[in-house]
Amino acid sequence: MGIIVQKFGGSSVANAERVLNVARRVTDTYSQGNDVVVVVSAQGDTTDDLIVKAKEINPRASKREMDVLLSTGEQISIALLAMAIESLGFPVKSLTGWQAGMKTDSNHGSARIKRIDTERIENEISKRNIVVVAGFQGINRYDDITTLGRGGSDTSAVALAAALKADLCQIYTDVDGVYTADPRKVENARKLQEITFDEMLELATLGAQVLHNRSVEMAKKYRVNLEVLSSLERLPGTKVKEVTKVEKTLIKGVAKDSDIARISVLKVPDQPGVAYKIFSLLASKRINVDIILQSIGRDGSKDISFTVPLADKDAAVDILESHKETFGASDVHWDDTVSKVSIVGAGMQSHPGVASTMFEALSEAGINIQMISTSEIKISVLIDRQDADRAVSAIHAAFLDRE
Ligand code: ASP
Ligand code: MG
What we know:
Layout lengths: L2 E6 L7 H16 L3 E6 L5 H12 L5 H25 L4 E4 L6 E3 L8 E4 L2 H8 L3 E5 L2 E3 L5 E3 L5 H11 L4 E6 L20 E3 H9 L7 H9 L4 E5 L7 E4 L11 E5 L2 E10 L4 H11 L7 E3 L6 E9 L3 H10 L1 H4 L3 E5 L2 E7 L9 H11 L6 E5 L2 E7 L3 H12 L4
Parallel strand pairs: 1-2, 1-9, 2-6, 3-6, 9-11, 10-12
Antiparallel strand pairs: 4-5, 7-8, 11-12, 13-18, 14-16, 14-17, 15-16, 18-20, 19-20
């Protein structure tokens, strides 16, 4: 018994039946004697639909007004869930982000939580009310509404769990845990019982769409006891923690990210300062660069290639094209038909041969590797997008398939 934060995603509250199902799960937890704070996302595709509505009226709407609009999706969900909980005869209060004391910076569209003033929530808890909080939203110091970026409700939930020193933060979703690969695509994908924060962070960043990566960062920082589980079935989920004991597998998962593009800056002078110029231009546009590859200089020039989020490709190409002369490039090329496939596992730090097993699997599948990058606990390759699903299956078979 203690404080439990439960987060339910958009698909878990998509219609009346599901909202009632969530209400039953929440009230069961409450009836066991726990204090329950629930965080919900907007129903189903509401957020996408709102974006379409905005674009019909003004494709260049300010980020401030977009936040006013997008935050309404979560406000619908908190009211409906509170009504469902009322209908089961339990005491409940719904709170928007600002009512819940969710204070963020002013970076509209991808705001960061600065602090949570928890008095209101604590007050409701002390009256034994179930508290339902709108995810994904907060207010800045001017009292303007902000949103935390797509998928941000996970981060709202973890931040609340940290601020309330909750005993447990449960993220309920439409999958029943964290898998070794996308179970819809890879037949032998298995659910993990446990995964470390670092592994989860890599997987979340690399395209496994289970948890918002900032939520994992925050859970690690504040040691939040985190669990991912199904909102539809009552099954054990996956525990995310500092160290794992149960499964001693080398690799925890294979992830695919197709929301990326490769950019190559060709024939830049082989001199100090060139990479700096290129990447500071991108940084000035707040474009995140991932895998970077620089060729060996030949005849005084070299090529630099890197990947960026697909959504930033045009902005990246534009700024590089228009500044080509300042760093002396002959051409800027791009390719938006690539995918990044990665393996993640803390075990690879102490085991040689992981990279060779991965590359062997790709070679046997006849898949060409364009770029490679590694960190202590992951290896990523850039390949043709049309090969990506096959690559994931081949790599999964090499490391994770069991009889
Ligand atoms: N409703 C928001 C989105 O669709 C936030 C979330 O789902 O976590 O991105
Ligand atoms: Mg959503």
